Amino acid sequence: MALAFDEFGRPFIILKEQEQMTRLRGLDAQKANISAGKAVARILRTSLGPKGMDKMLQSPDGDVTITNDGATILEQMDVDNQIAKLMVELSRSQDYEIGDGTTGVVVMAGALLEQAEKLLERGIHPIRIAEGYEMASRIAFEHLENVAHKYEFDATNIEPLVQTCMTTLSSKIVNRCKRSLAEIAVKAVLAVADLERKDVNLDLIKVEGKVGGKLEDTELIYGIVVDKDMSHPQMPKQIEDAKIAILTCPFEPPKPKTKHKVDIDTVEKFQTLRQQEQKYFDDMVQQCKDVGATLVICQWGFDDEANHLLMHRNLPAVRWVGGVELELIAIATGGRIVPRFQELTPEKLGKAGLVREKAFGTTKDRMIYIEHCANSKAVTIFIRGGNKMILEETKRSLHDALCVARNLIRNNSIVYGGGSAEISCSIAVEAAADKYPGVEQYAIRAFADALDAIPMALAENSGLQPIETLSAVKAQQIKENNHYCGIDCNDIGTNDMREQDVFETLIGKQQQIMLATQVVKMILKIDDVISSSDY
Amino acid sequence: MAVDKLFKDEATEEKGERARMASFIGAMAIADLVKTTLGPKGMDKILQSTGRGHSVTVTNDGATILKSLHIDNPAAKVLVDISKVQDDEVGDGTTSVVVLAGELLREAEKLVNSKIHPMTIISGYRMAAEAARNALLEKVVDNKQDAEKFNADLIKIAMTTLSSKILSQDKEHFAKLAVDAVMRLKGSTNLESIQIIKKPGGSLKDSFLDEGFILDKKIGVGQPKRIENAKILVANTAMDTDKVKIYGARVRVDSMAKVAEIEGAEKEKMREKVQKIINHGINCFVNRQLIYNFPEELFADSGVLAIEHADFDGIERLALVTGGEIASTFDNPESVKLGHCKLIEEIMIGEDKLIHFSGVQMGQACTIVLRGASPHMLDEAERSLHDALCVLSQTVNDSRVLLGGGWPEMVMAKAVDELARRTPGKRSHAIEAFSRALAAIPTTIADNAGLDSAELIAQLRAEHQKEESSAGIDVISGLVGNMAELGISESFKVKQAVLLSATEAAEMILRVDEIITCAPRQREDRM
């Protein structure tokens, strides 16, 4: 197989230990790759849409995840096949870039591969297919821009944003209270958004969860919630108009980085050292007190003595606060992170209207709420849920909703959901196909067919007759020359997605088509798979 | 062409019907496992650990049973998780929540088999859960204003909770105990300040609540055994060798004489520290850390009672009880708040000596001393009491109360049934199924008590058709009885948590149509 002959007819080996390798070439390789890609898409297909089902994943350590989110499913699936890994990457990049539509992109790629397989059987060269797909995707991309709808909103009129987030949330387990969650997501994004620059830093939104309670108790807090408690049990549990010193140095004797030794050889030295030590603690606390701090938040631990001194001087403190949280607190309260006690000044203190400790349930769980901050550019979404899995899934769903809201702020164009955008693109691509001479025409038509796969899957998951429904909707779109007819997944009784308020972001849809096409092109170009058979 | 291998070796994938069946079966198996422990006549389970010693636990508590199981089925893990959350959040109803979720899934399985889509079932269940919750909200009784009635409610709730546990023999006694303890917390849900001390010996009846505080420690040798009008300093400080904390410090000497000098200085330092502590004008010193012999001797000399190595919780509770602050530095004696109590004495419980603080200032913490025949019994008694305390502390905050004995389930079932009749479409089947699942709880209670459940439930249903019925199952007489007269009450918060978590969990499992199990991580065999 991997044997070549030089000019004298002597064989020489290209692949080392070729007996142990498996190798697929040519059409076989392409078909094997395609079927692997399709297999991955098939897993996700049933998760699409508001009536999509969830997947239960058991990790190598036995932890259970139940989710509907394409990126999470693929990430945890532990796939072994190389092509399947490409699909995982595909979904992940959609997640990083857009945050939503991770399932759709994989289903789309699967459909494209399926169509490509048929064309290959007809003897069309893979590169020609790939080029045809490329052209078609450009047509669809531009078509989407044409049918997109600008959506006007501002800080007061958030309804359009909420509607779009609700479309995203409706496919998740949390759709019971999608309205309130969508509102939370939109408010959170607006609170941290820079509407001038049209940019949103999602890092400023902290998502914290605690099991217990019910989903409806989920709330948005204009401030920070830290999963810590006061360092001393007898410190005050509530501080109003707090001035916060944010420290990254421990309340402990200094530990110089260079190696050193302090030798004690006389009684005097022993005593001076002792006094030094006491003075040290005293100074630290005094410095905090002097600048007027009423709360100390520290990244490190406290010595028992320092702890008591803090308590004694009536200076509440929180210890072991993580670095990321510390940064968020600094942003929210407008304070500076201070690395040394000597550098504490009154200007560097953060300000918050209210800091309080709150207890949960019957266990010893306590959390610290920092609210009414000077600078409310950091918010926390605090999720409650019946069990750990619901909580995790809610976090993922909210992440999707947050991303959607962010995308809308960046680019306020929307397309209609429920498969209507795909159907409309399919019609446009189909119509454009005839203008292309050459073999690519077939590939472009195949692309149009593949676009139908998403509305088809939606209809199938919703328990409708897929082909019948799709053709009816398609006919309606052509007849009425509109682009907002989609699949009526929730059985409301209308195909008009404007009435159903089902929207998706334009960039999300465009990105889906582009990414799916790119991956399919890449898979089609592979004609040789070499893998060592045992590892 | 089929793909031979998409996943890693040993990873398995189950799809559609098979996946659903696997999760239904797993969840129902778990529910059936704990089912027999439900209700006043529920049976206990023996759990033997696989660890060293094969220690044995006898329990009736759903959360404890499930926590100790090694489960492989992912759906079953969801149920274990909700039971754990129920335990953390409200403390009781850990069995009910699993049984209800199991019943919901059992009903759902039937519906799926008759070709109803899981999503339709879910939306039906959601509507039903909402209706059931509203039905309960209508019927709640809130006696927060009337302190006497509220107290009676609390006792009833405690008795209902305890009646299914090992303590049922002396439930009046323990109910009173638990209510007293919780009322002392004054609305806080921090159960840490109720200390439970277990001492084998005696009988359950000998258990008592102590107004003061009992510390499971001994008094140092040669120190007074009894102090009246004690002034207590609660501290967390090193009383062994008070080492220099400055990094890198070490002692380097060149002669024996120097060693002696430094040793002397160290001793002097300790003496000074002890003197400072004594200067607070105290006659009792409680430290979290060890106290070495030398300072102990110093304390004894000046007639101060020194107690060493009281653990962290003990210190915190003691601080709560006596109103003192936990100190670690002793330079300003005038500003440190000292704790006070009328009397400290050594008492004997069984064969052990304990230190008893009585006549304390702030009564926020208290101690319950449990007595019983064997450690297993005591462990179970502690768990039962813990359940009761949790429920009570939650009820103090959310004082809405319902009747018990299967009454709330029947009320909910009735409301859900009515909803089913009004709802058009396939969802009504799911709503009906929800009502059947609710009725399964009183059925299980009756079954566990060896009663004719079919007959009883039918009677109960008929009773509930009347307005303002308060009928429930009276397990003792084996008949339908008036729960209001029998004084069987439950907390609304617990019931609501059971309803919502069970529905949420059932919904979650129903939504699954594929299970992917990754290859288990390779571990070294430690057997």
TrEMBL record, chain A:
SUPFAM superfamilies: GroEL apical domain-like, GroEL equatorial domain-like, GroEL-intermediate domain like
Coiled-coil residues: none
Statement: the UniProt record of this protein carries the keyword Acetylation: yes
Keyword Ubl conjugation: yes
Subcellular localization(s) per the UniProt record: Cytoplasm, Cytoskeleton, Microtubule organizing center, Centrosome
One GO cellular component, as annotated: chaperonin-containing T-complex
Keywords linked to the UniProt accession: Acetylation, ATP-binding, Chaperone, Cytoplasm, Cytoskeleton, Hydrolase, Isopeptide bond, Nucleotide-binding, Phosphoprotein, Ubl conjugation
Reactions catalysed according to its record: ATP + H2O = ADP + phosphate + H(+)
GO molecular function: ATP binding; hydrolase activity
InterPro entries: Chap_CCT_epsi (IPR012718), Chaperone_TCP-1 (IPR017998), Chaperonin_TCP-1_CS (IPR002194), Cpn60/GroEL/TCP-1 (IPR002423), GroEL-like_apical_dom_sf (IPR027409), GROEL-like_equatorial_sf (IPR027413), TCP-1-like_intermed_sf (IPR027410), TCP-1_chaperonin (IPR053374)
Superkingdom to which the source organism belongs: Eukaryota
UniProt cross-references to CDD domains, sorted A to Z: TCP1_epsilon
Function according to Swiss-Prot or TrEMBL: Component of the chaperonin-containing T-complex (TRiC), a molecular chaperone complex that assists the folding of actin, tubulin and other proteins upon ATP hydrolysis. The TRiC complex mediates the folding of WRAP53/TCAB1, thereby regulating telomere maintenance. As part of the TRiC complex may play a role in the assembly of BBSome, a complex involved in ciliogenesis regulating transports vesicles to the cilia. Molecular chaperone; assists the folding of proteins upon ATP hydrolysis. Known to play a role, in vitro, in the folding of actin and tubulin.
Similarity annotation: Belongs to the TCP-1 chaperonin family.
Oligomeric form and interacting partners: Component of the chaperonin-containing T-complex (TRiC), a hexadecamer composed of two identical back-to-back stacked rings enclosing a protein folding chamber. Each ring is made up of eight different subunits: TCP1/CCT1, CCT2, CCT3, CCT4, CCT5, CCT6A/CCT6, CCT7, CCT8. Interacts with PACRG. Interacts with DNAAF4. Interacts with DLEC1. Interacts with SPMAP2. Heterooligomeric complex of about 850 to 900 kDa that forms two stacked rings, 12 to 16 nm in diameter.
Name of this chain's protein: T-complex protein 1 subunit epsilon
Taxonomic path: Eukaryota, Viridiplantae, Streptophyta, Embryophyta, Tracheophyta
UniProtKB/TrEMBL annotation, chain B:
Cytoplasm found in the keyword field: yes
Localization per record: Cytoplasm
PROSITE patterns: TCP1_1, TCP1_2, TCP1_3
Major subcellular location class: cytoplasm
A molecular function GO annotation: ATP binding
Key words of the record: ATP-binding, Chaperone, Cytoplasm, Nucleotide-binding
KW Zinc-finger (keyword) present: no
Pfam families, per database record: Cpn60_TCP1
GO cellular component terms, A-Z: chaperonin-containing T-complex
SUPFAM superfamilies: GroEL apical domain-like (SSF52029), GroEL equatorial domain-like (SSF48592), GroEL-intermediate domain like (SSF54849)
Coiled coil location: none
Function: Molecular chaperone; assists the folding of proteins upon ATP hydrolysis. Known to play a role, in vitro, in the folding of actin and tubulin.
Similarity comment text for this entry: Belongs to the TCP-1 chaperonin family.
PANTHER family named in the record: CHAPERONIN
Protein name (Swiss-Prot/TrEMBL): T-complex protein 1 subunit beta
Organism of this sequence: Forsythia ovata
